[in-house]
Every structure is written in C-alpha cells, then in structure tokens.
Design brief:
By secondary structure, the protein is mainly alpha-helical. It has three helices and no strands. 15% of the residues are buried.
Length: 68
C-alpha cells in the first residue's frame, strides 16, 4: 500500500466509524466507535504527514498510534 492509499484507507475507516457511532443507541457502543474513529483519524494524519515528507517514519508512527 502506498502512503496516499494509507491516508485514504484510514480516512474512509474514520468516516465509517463516525457513521456507526451516530447510529448507536447504547452509549458504551457509541463510545467504542468514537474511539475507533479518533484512532483512524490519527493514523490518517500520520500517513498524510509522511506522504508529504513532513513526518516521521509511518510504520513507527502508526505503531505508536495504535499502542504497539
């Protein structure tokens, strides 16, 4: 996957999680999906920075963002 594809994938996943959260009726489920959306948004930002040459190595940044 290219860095631009990474950005698009993470952006799309963030939007999907926001949509699911907007439909959730259980507050705990809504919170889980909002957390996932925030994580995907962070990954999207990291991939975009790396693609522009203004960020650190994507792999290590992504691992940090997801807690590895």
């Amino acid at each position: 996957m290219t860095l631009e594809n990474d950005w698009a994938y993470y952006q799309r996943r963030a939007q999907q999680q926001l949509f699911i959260a907007s439909r959730a009726t259980d507050p705990a489920i809504k919170a889980i999906h909002l957390d996932l959306a925030a994580r995907y948004a962070t990954l999207s930002e990291l991939a975009a920075r790396e693609a522009s040459g203004k960020g650190p190595n994507t792999t290590s940044s992504i691992e940090l963002a997801i807690g590895r």
